[in-house]
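Box 3.1 A note on notation
Throughout this textbook, protein chains are presented in two layers. The first layer is the amino acid sequence; the second is a token string describing backbone geometry. Keep the layers aligned when reading.
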Amino acid sequence: MKKLVRFNSLLNAEKFLILLFLLAFPSLVLGDCTCDAEEEDKNRSLALKYRFGAIASIFLASLVGVCLPVLGKKIPSLSPENNFFFIIKAFAAGVILATGFIHVLPDAFKSLTSPCLPQNPWGKFPFTGFVAMLAAIGALMVDVYATSHYRNKPGNGKGIEAVEGDGENQFSGLPLHTDATHGHAHASVSVEGGSIPNQLRYRVISQVLELGIIVHSVIIGIALGASDNPKTIRPLLAALTFHQFFEGVGLGGCITQAKFKAQAITIMALFFSLTTPFGIAIGIGISNVYNENSPNALIVQGIFDAASSGILVYMALVDLLSADFMNPKMQSNARLLQGANISLLFGAGCMSLLAKWA
């Protein structure tokens, strides 16, 4: 299919930002600390075994989760055209939503309101909510701008260019303000028809969602890898394995609907699967000198957690839940809609329950 918008620059920028963060994080957290490290039951040898087990467990769970929807062509029940796909994706969206609200955002508040930070400016302004808000707005702007950029290409301002190939219907000169109530009839809103604007949207969704997940995954991976307390590692391992699997399912569903080429799918799946294990490896490497209560560590963790929370909440509500729940296929099927609602609540509830231990 020709004339698709290329996302190489966006993907490269995403990789550059993440690589820059990975390289800069260890040096930022090794500053002078104003608070003593918390007393904890340290057992380095046992903790090291747990950490290496965490690397293998989380990598496998992430890889299986992100690959399941991609294998939809070979597993009919996991195909985006199947009703069961909507149920699983709603559960995964619930997990992502709870991760943002219940796990990431409270951690950001804890870091940026710590007594180890100076009152000026950290105690005089709600930076956590501010950063989360900016991140959500930023995700919205990327989402809207990328879609608008395609739809308003030079020479194509009044509609959508014809799509060549694949034996599908050709659309030309379709007004952008066309009524979207007949989802399957319009190229600008058709999911089932595989139209370019929706394919473009899913590509933006998958990359922004992966960025939001990766930022938090690196932070929590470093925290797990730097800990010498088995009592801290065990619940983190269970929670991370669970939510990395279902975050992978949600991300894999978007990747499948975006119809990336095999090479891009492989890169995105591996990038997602390796991020947390890589963060754990960094944590292990700096465990002897890492102090989670140092001002630099608290500020970096808090800001990145807040930004990750804003992105995850936006993506879960707008790009995953709203897109699917307003889909004509779900709107016309009361049983499917009810099942998706139950699945959403169950996914969010399970992930919320894990906050009791991690």
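The first helix runs from residue 8 to 29. Residues 1-7, 27-34, 155-194 have pLDDT under 50 and may be disordered.
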